[in-house]
Amino acid sequence: MRRRTGLLSALLLVACGGGGGSSRRTLIDSRDNYDPRSLDPALSTDVPTGRAVAYLFDGLTRFTPDARVIPSLATSWDVSPDGSVYTFHLRRGVAFTDGRPFVARQVLTSWKRVLDPKVKGGRGWPLYPIRGAKEFAAGTAKSIDGLAAPNDSTVVVTLKEPFAIFPKLLAMPVASIAPDSIPANFGENPVGTGPWKLVEWKHDDYLLFAANPKYWDGRPRSDSLEARIIAEPSTAVAEFESGNVDVLQVPQSEIRSWEEDVERRKLLVTTPSLELVYVAINTMRGPLRDVRVRQAINHSIDRAVLVRNLISGRGELAAGVIPPSLPGSDPTRKGYQFDTLRARQLLREAGYPNGIDVELWTSTNPIYVRIAETLQGYFQLSGIRAKIIQRESAAAREAARKGQTDLFVKDWYADYPDAENFLYPLLHGANKGVGGNVSYFGDARYDSLVTLARREQDETRRVALYRQADELAFESAPMVFLYFYSELNAIQPWLHGFVPPTIFNGQSWITVTKSVATH
Amino acid sequence: MSAFVLRRLLLAVPTLFGVLIVAFLLLYVAPGDPVQAMVGERADSATIARLRQELRLNDPLPVQFGHYVAAIAKGDLGRSYITNRPIRKDIVERFPKTLQLAGAAMLLATVLGVTLGVLSARVPGGIIDRFGLGVAYLGISFPVYWVGLLLILLFAVTLHWLPPSGFGGLRYLALPALALGMRSIAFLARMTRSAMLDSLSADYVRTARAKGLRESIVVGRHALRNALIPIITVLGLDFGSYLTGSILTETIFSWPGIGRYVVNAIARRDLPAIQGSVLFLSAVFVLVNLLTDVAYAKADPRVSYG
Asked: Any idea what the Cα angle at residue A490 is, between residues A371 and A409, rounded to 5°?
């Protein structure tokens, strides 16, 4: 059926000689490049899944497109003076799309389900701050001690220890609220309280959603939304140019041609995405244990040239791990300058006058391969002899997690918009290896700064701690700080109200409309 | 003949068992942790250890293999680690789409390739022959993804005749089938041409002409039929390989077939999905080969499998 509208618009296109997509009513997104793994929030870990879950479900909180956290199913919350007890006041009169009313009990059952070892999810880490959650997930406790629902519209959450940004974690897809009885095929037939309902899911092809007419925050202004799954970026571009999709994530390889085209340039929107591209330096291996060597590596490359030539200038040079758009980053900090003399001098001071040999690992992702090749060339100028080791991405990641890589080109994309989501997983001693710290960085002072920040209730003091920790990370150079990528989207002129989100699940298309030409 | 088919089907069982062993071992030799792909970037080692235990990934290999074979024997391909959907359902959903694409590509290849080959052979060195040679060179030397992108650019973006990608009716099938079939068209055209040249110069063709048969019957019934064996061989091999997933074509045209499914499964180390689809696709391949052999006998009465 849906293809008939495509046919119609194609015919109109031929008839009118352009202006495609104008007669279509459905909003169509082309940003997903693989099929969501499931529409069950409990299984959500990747971007396409997270996006779709955000259309179908609500959490207690949610993200705005510019990555602020605002109330969703919770209208407000109180925090105990010591920061360890959160009392969420729930929105009344909300119903699931199957008509069942939303009550506090479902918050408990949803989160329990995410953590339940029987569900074989294992994706429950955002809920681990809750007292007893980790024990329940490990199967050593029968219930979650820190969860209570004293009445239908109140949920009291007791944390293991104070964690000031906890409400942000509740806006993640995995913390979404589902009804209390879940059928076996819930991942294919989801029921939520979200702005959209699932109409049809053709795997590897598209997901079609219809507006939830009873959405508590007002019905979406368009009737239907389709998320197409397009694996090949050039194909997505062709669909966009044919007017068949409304939003396009411009592929990195095509950025320049879009920016230089007078017509296409008008459609572009830049979003500071929360993605850090960096080279993890394993601080436990050989010469890399010496901070001077790590600083030398940072000094040996010209990042400005790299960003200009490899990603058409669409990145902000990193001087620390906190993206410039998040509180805690220090705009005055100057990054490592390209200085081969300084690099050689640092290597000499560290006792390597003849330079060092390192293995530079990368996945087969073309952009990272090019980064690796560029770095290899720069390194040479300072006496750092790098051997590039290219592996398929799962294999490369596994080697890095096991601590087998010297240098590893990778990125980190935020789960939630907070400096903590960079400082803690990437460099805290508790996360060495599998937790995300593939630099194997372990610095007692850094760890205590980050731990203190996580507990700190006062935002100003917390941000100050973030900044100190970031400064320390910068000086210790457990990575080559490359850049924060700024995403480039193209939006059709007939689409209104679409703001590309800073965080992947921050845009639910509720207020987005499309002009429809009548012929 | 039926005894032959039966024997071949029985022989397929050990073949598939061999495939199973190789696929199983390869996956355990290849680096990359399936559990890590399940839980995402930020998991703790306790969770990973627990899941490994639950999925029996810590059992000795022969024990794991035993469990797997036992399940297969019951017709159960298991559930995906990543999506938690039954593998059989995933395959049943995707394979018909791959079949449709492969069928269309083969149809194009047969019609266009054989016609071009026959016409080329009628006047060697003539204008059609030279055109056919050009098509064959291009078809064989252009990589499929490049042809695919060019087709999209021309027929979808510039001319607006067809949709760039997606799955649907004939309009959606045309471009991917052409891109996929391109190589077969080229190859078949050359193959048919040389086989036809051989048989056109054979004695029985001269006899047929001497009998005063019309040229269309001479070419169509006498010469072509004798040239069929190499054509069937090429068709069978290409069909088998298209059915097992034309990854590039499916990716470029967003065609939701089995090729993309397998690639995604491999990227995520989704062991049950990889093993299940490899087993299924091997069975398809064996079956296509068997059909090819049967077709030999149909095409040429001298071939018999006693």
From this structure: 15
Residues of B in contact with A7 (CB under 8 A): 171
Q: Which of A178, A203, A202 is nearest to A190 (CA)?
A: A178
In a domain, B272, yes or no: yes
Domain-located, residue B247: yes
Q: Out of A216-225, A489-498, B32-41, which region has the weakest mean confidence (pLDDT)? A: B32-41
Instruction: Please give the structure tokens belonging to residue A73.
Output: 């199913």
B201 has a pLDDT exceeding 90 = no
Alpha-carbon span B62 to B66, nearest angstrom: 6
Q: Which residues of A touch B260 (CB under 8 A)?
A: 204, 231
Q: Which domain holds residue B200?
A: 87-299
Closest approach of chain B CAs to the CA of A449, in angstroms? 21
CB of A141 less than 8 A from some CB of B: no
Q: Which amino acid is at A3?
A: R
Q: CB of A125 within 8 Å of any CB in chain B?
A: yes
Pairing label, strands A85-90, A69-71: unpaired
Chain A 408-467, CB below 8 Å of chain B: which residues? 415, 425, 431, 433-436
Residue B33 lies in a domain: no
CB contact under 8 A, B165 and A235: yes
Please tell me the pTM assigned to this model: 0.90
Continuous segment of H or E residues that includes residue A485: strand A479-491
Would an 8 Å CB–CB cutoff place B54 in contact with chain A? Answer: yes
Taking CB atoms and an 8 Å limit, are A204 and B260 in contact across chains? Answer: yes
The CATH number for B113's domain is: 1.10.3720.10
Check if the beta carbon of residue A78 is closer than 8 Å to that of residue A86. yes
Partner A contacted by B95 (CB < 8 A): no
Cα-based distances in Å from B17 to B8, B80, B88, B282: 15, 21, 18, 10
Q: Does residue B15 lie within any of the structural domains?
A: no
Split into its structural domains, chain B has a count of: 1
* pLDDT recorded at residue B306: 57
Does A391 touch chain B if contact means CB atoms closer than 8 Å?
A: yes
- The mean per-residue pLDDT over the stretch A169-177 comes to 96
Q: What is the pLDDT of residue A13?
A: 41
